Amino acid sequence: MECIRLAGTDPRIPRGTTVPATFTTTEGLAFIHRQWSRAENGEGVSQAVVEVGSGRAVGLMWVALRPQPHVGGLGYWIIPPARGLGLATAAVRLVLPWALNALNLRRLEAWVEPDNVGSQRVLRGAGFQQEGRLRNFITVEDRSSDALVFSVIPPKL
Q1: Which in 52, 55, 89, 153 has the greatest CB count within 10 A?
Q2: pLDDT tens digits for 22-76?
Q3: Distance of alpha carbon 74 from alpha carbon 26, whole angstroms
Q4: Which one-letter DSSP state was computed for residue 66?
Q5: Which residues form the N-acetyltransferase domain (predicted)?
Q6: Conformation bin of residue 55: beta by default, left when phi > 0, alpha when psi is -120 to 50
Q7: Whole-structure pTM value
Q8: CATH code of domain 2-152
Q9: Pairing relation of β-strands 143-152 and 107-112?
């Protein structure tokens, strides 16, 4: 629950996710239940990002199933006190083989707001390539934003 509370302290995380901006135990539990229901509903899979040494949850990784066959979407966040340690990049690298193989994906993509340089760095560090820019593609709090498109595809055998 502490991870969810800390995620809500970064205005960008609740703005682009279902993390509660104002934390209560009830809202925190509702968030957890929404993550569990994603697999049950066929939407994708949410997993906690956990520090190896402490076992403490420091973020979230979500692999969504896009409407296109064999295409997934990637979302993630790391709580502010745990940033800058390479945890997001390590988590993305760890989830990649599983997502591509277990979900039979031919493409995993991530959409990033242009000013989110940290997330762009994570994706590049995990082997994603920037493909382009979708203008006015993301709506966050009733405002439109461009999205930079990053993707990775399985290696050809």
Answers
A1: 89
A2: 999 999 999 999 999 998 998 899 999 999 889 999 999 999 999 999 999 999 9
A3: 27
A4: P
A5: 11-155
A6: left
A7: 0.90
A8: 3.40.630.30
A9: antiparallel
